[in-house]
Structure of Glycoside hydrolase family 65 protein:
Amino acid sequence: MKNYIKANEWNIIEEGFDPHLNKISESIFSIGNGRMGQRANFEETFSGETLQGNYIAGVYYPDKTRVGWWKNGYPEYFAKVLNAANWIGLKIKIDHEILDLNTCTVTHFKRVLNMQEGYLERSFIAKLTSGKQLQVHAKRFYSIVDDEAGALQYSIKALNFAGTIQITSFTDGDIQNQDANYDEKFWNEVSGAVSDNIAFLTLQTKKTFFEVCTATQVFIQKNNKPVAIKPASTHREKFVSHLAVTDVVAGDSIVLHKYAVQVSSENHPKDKLQHISEQLLHKIVAKGFNNMLEEQAAAWAAKWETSDIVIKGDVKAQQAIRFNIFQLNQTYTGKDARLNIGPKGFTGEKYGGSTYWDTEAYCVPFYLSTSAQEVTRNLLIYRYKQLDKAIENAQKLGFTDGAALFPMVTMNGEECHNEWEITFEEIHRNGAIAYAIYNYIRYTGDADYLAEYGLEVLIGIARFWKQRVNWSAAKNAYVMLGVTGPNEYENNINNNWYTNTIATWCLKYAIEAATYVKDNQPHVYQKLVQKLQLDEFAEFSSWNAIVKGMYYPASTELGVFLQQDGYLDKEQTLVSELASEHLPLNQKWSWDRILRSCFIKQADVLQGLYFFEDDYDKDTLRRNFDFYEPRTVHESSLSPCIHSILAARLGNQERAYQFYLRTARLDLDDYNNDTEDGLHITSMAGTWMSVVEGFAGMRVRDNQLKFSPFLPDSWESFSFTINFRVYVLNIKIGHEQIIISNKSAEAITIKVFDKDYTIAAETVIYIVHKEKIVNIVA
Ligand code: BGC
């Protein structure tokens, strides 16, 4: 765990330069705009430890799978989010010395991520070996207004010397993914061109043939007067550059502006990429750096308006929650249904930008409440568009008749996870995809989604579960064998309670959804029946039989559901009994020892109780929580948030807060020692859930919003804004009162602690929650 980020409500601040922390900071200070993103690499040369990273959404490489023993059904490749051309490059030479923070003395170093306005800033003073000193100030951002563009400003002041400064501004496409399986480079050059102060570099990915054109335009001024720039004579493959040379004396200032666009064949015809990038470049250059930045601040202000959480009385908690929200908004904007949210977003390579069940299980609630409805709808449509591939995927594994198995990891709908336990067995992901449809409709009321897209997906998923279970004569029940639940510290287990539970839920929901569409849109329904060759009677009866006859492992003695058959055969030890040198298990123990132990990586039974809490009474929730949490090592970043919400539900506010702390500053404090690989983007949505679903106890039930809030002792208050259908509400929880503002044009009735309150349009109500007395103030 680290503790070097300075507390501040709106900014992430690093002061003083420690090269050992650089890779962690490169992740933390990442910038992005939903279409592109990059790590906070330095613009100038850096010969120290760095993970260079600039990523473009949807542009990936199918890296051939590396496994020891090939088995039928293995995915051919693991999709890598591609490290794309690095356009920020500046090589700065002062007489004969290169500016490199690894080799000079650095003072006054400060790096700031301004989350309110959406930019990254860095300043420092560098003393070169010769004793020459310069002061640098750099600012850059990826525009969320022009989402194929970015810009940077880089100022250098000569502090104590006279000499010559050479600046080479470049775009380097000769880069490699550090996680490449065969050390292969993934890009080929299509073309490169440099003229005046503009450079183009078009690269094509091997195998997938995506093309990306990176165009930059550079302007340099010395003491407010233009400095001549010319194409540099070096001609390297996949590399374009410009050169400017100027003499300086002490006190002179050089200011460079570099505008960049990266346009891809995902969005434009290949033969027009250069032309389109040129037009876009013109557009942003005409706006200018400061105007672009002003637009950026205004666009971020609009995002904060609907997604901010304000915490009073705890600056570190405030900073943390904003950081999580900021990074989620940098990763996914919901404009494009082909894109999704990778566990590391655009901040690193491991897990890359591929889609996991994380999206449906964790991210959907965040986007539902903080963004327009289309944003989540697009996340659902992403899976709808991949339904054919999910059916193919299931066929490869021997399933038939339209059964769909969505992949555990994917870029384009094909499975690309290369561990068999996950690919073949972690099939609960299908359940989360169905649950997200249900969650979306429950929240938005957009039941038409079922007829248009949802039902088809639900039927494919139901057909899969139908074929995946089998009848056990011994148990006189349906069983599901050979699965891996959310707890990946168990493989190939039988009757994972969570998977069995979500499977039968899917079957029930598919029938309910079909009935709804049949009643409300009979024409659409008939078309679907034909398209899917749905034999309503036979199929629904067989699904119902499974719903009625499924086996759920449980211990009557302990009064808990069992994670799987035989779970109690394991030696029952608690995490608190483990000496600290054993943790984290995934680094300290052999895999087989982990598999044999009772220790749990992340919420498994408890994940099911989180999804379906209304189906169980509080005592059941409590008994299971008290049994499973002490056996959980929380070695997935997705774990603490679910525990926080359940602890809140059980009225254990202290524990809810402790779990929240574990998720909120996971990356800022490098809690798991892995932030250098990239940020835990999808778990950030879990942090938001811990506050809104945990502390505020928000639920949507029977088309109504419900709250049962509490305030962590160390906070003065917290407040958040949510979109709910046609309403915008701001909810503020203080020690004594709850203040709810209805910012919409219609009255709304909500429940607080199970009591109805109607709030007129544009009105605020105050609820004195200790006594649960209400005052309504117009
Ligand atoms: C977790 C999975 C998750 C994946 C990507 C793994 O460590 O166990 O549940 O989908 O990370 O975040």
Remarks:
- The longest strand covers residues 211-222.
- The chain has a mean pLDDT of 96.
- Residues 343, 351, 356-358, 486, 488, 601-602, 636, 638, 682 surround beta-D-glucopyranose (CB under 6 Å).
- The first helix runs from residue 22 to 28.
